[in-house]
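Protein folding task:
====================
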Amino acid sequence: MNTKSPFGAVPVFRPTLEEFTDVSSFVAKIWTTCLPCGLVKIIPPAGWSPTTKPYDTDSIQIPTPIKQVLNGKQGKFEQMHVEQPPMFVRDFKELAKKFEEESRLEGLSIEDQEEKFWKSLNFQAPLYGADMLGSLFDEDVKAWNPQNLGSLLNLIPQSMSGINRPYLYFGMWKAMFGWHTEDMDLFSINYLHFGKPKQWYAIPAIESPRFERAVCSLFPSNAMSCKMFLRHKTTIIKPHIIAKQHNITVNSCVQEPGEFMITFPYSYHAGFNYGFNCAESVNFATKEWIEYGKKSKPCTCTQGLARIDMDLFEARYQLSCENEGKDNVTEEMVWDRLLANGIDIEAKLNELERLFQEENGLDQNDKNTEHKKHKKMAPKSAPKSAPKSAPKATPKIPTTGAPKIETADSNPKIETTAQAELKSATAKPKRRVSQAKTSTKRQKREESEDEEYFPEKKAKSQIRQKGVRSPPSKTQGPSCGNTTMTFKVNDPVVASL
């Protein structure tokens, strides 16, 4: 049996139908209250449904099921993804049922199943049908529809799979997702359509820098190869280690079918599935996210990661606010705004062109032709080198044969959009210095990294002192394992359980 859990609680909201209309406005109301938690649960009101038809997913094809093989011990693992042949959901469901029977889960409580999960990671590798482009929501569902959340990501003119187009996830017992933040440190929203529950763990953004340093100490070779290796989403760490050994807050929650989960910007999260289920997820952005997006650090060693050029994004956002919506904003206005903001247009063009060539497989001989083409797109009011719009490519996306489902392989998660310049991951080795000097330099660097994201926390040194855990937030609530709590704040959108 489980002993008392070391985890904090996750706030739960029960909005009414009148309150359950717009995701962005809802998040704006709970932002201050829930940012210290990193994760919230939303239970939709009675009368709301994602579809009017019964779920019929058996004929959907999973193009690339992933076998999740772990390597590690003592609660610290690296995950290897082994691609499997395509299979239909009905076959995946049969495998999941057999997998559960072999794991002898019948009669075990959720708490006991959670404990069993962390004790059996080296055995019985599960399959995960992840990152499948598609949606099970009816298109005419207006409220909280991942196909059209109406967030600031609508300012991006390109379609980006998984970012502003939803993904489906078919899980089974032990199918997991490693510790990560979202691409560009965006918000994410996850709806569990049907099946067994999903376990979530989340670290508040305020403690993410300390978590990154702790993980680098646990996986030093990975950190040397890529400073942002957590972007690879292959790191599995038992949350008890994070909470007890590193004094980092971990909040925990179980998501039931019919419930939404929202992760906040720069909040690391991980979890696993308790059996066969189907979830749908997409990213979204609000004005509160913009500063996080500008500070987001990319991984430079992995291809296919989504990037958003924040200079262009911020220019579009400013203009849409000034001109009553994005429909009244032209690309020429965007590039004029970049000039007004002091952006080097020539450097921006070269940056976008280089990424455009990399993404579309252009060799050096194509460079002159492409450069001439982009020059012709420059607006009259900007330098000749400024394009009227960001270079983009729209590949054709073949479907898998099932309605509304498309293959992720043929439509990679990164699709050409205005992108930021990739930074080199290489650095010269530093000369060894005394332990005292090293400790002092490390402390200053850690404080600088923390204050880069959270300058308002400069005075709270206890967060960064070794061995001293920051006091729990008033909004965090007591540690209560997998139980969730309901926030009671002065806001009409919150209702008690």
User: Anything to note?
Assistant: The first helix runs from residue 23 to 34. The radius of gyration is 23 Å. The chain has twelve helices and 17 strands. Confidence is low (pLDDT under 50) at residues 363-378, 380-438, 458-497.
